[in-house]
Amino acid sequence: MSSLAEAAAGLGYGLASALVPLVNAEAYALVAGERGGHALVAVLALALGQTAGKLLLFESARRGTGRLGRRFAQRSNTPRAATRAARWTGPIRRWLSRRRTALPTVLVSAAVGVPPLAVVSLAAGSAGVRRWEFAVACLLGRVTRFALLLLPAALA
């Protein structure tokens, strides 16, 4: 596959995986590493696609249509579910509300996966994190994550 086709496939797969939880970007990165060839292009395109998808989540939370909040409220009408949701949302909101902890939280989430990047994307949008700072931290974290996944296959 040419590098342009690899980039287009990686970008599309990254965007899809950012929005649809069943689509696994890490698996794509591993397959791209096994194939060799243009693995670096695939990883960069995958990270760009993931960042673009997470920016869509970020913007939807920033614009605050309220639909997402109502949907979560409908699902979490039991005390147990509300407690479980508060376990993640409370600390994430506190971290993202402070400028010195917001970007490291996004970077760690994008690189490690804890806290989940989808949750962090929504919380960062509603917390007022700057768009470009979120995008850069997310992209750096995703490139790091996918490159580390690809490294063993590339060295073999």
Summary?
The protein is an all-alpha fold.
Can you characterise this structure?
It is a single chain. With 156 residues, the chain is an all-alpha fold. It has one domain. Helix content is 84%, strand content 0%. The chain contains eight helices and no strands. α3 packs antiparallel against α8 (131-155) and α5 packs across α6.
Essential attributes:
156 residues, elongated
SSE order and pairing:
Layout: H1 3-19, H2 25-35, H3 39-63, H4 67-75, H5 79-97, H6 99-112, H7 117-127, H8 131-155
- Taken as a percent bin, the fraction of beta residues is under 5%
| Integer average pLDDT | 86
Largest sheet: none
User: How much helicity do the residues have?
Assistant: over 70%
Number of helical regions: 8
The beta-strand count equals 0
Shape: elongated
Number of domains: 1
Residue runs with pLDDT of under 50 for 5 or more positions: none
Radius of gyration (Å): 17 Å
H/E series, N to C?
HHHHHHHH
Return the structural class: mainly alpha
Cα distance spanning the termini: 21 Å
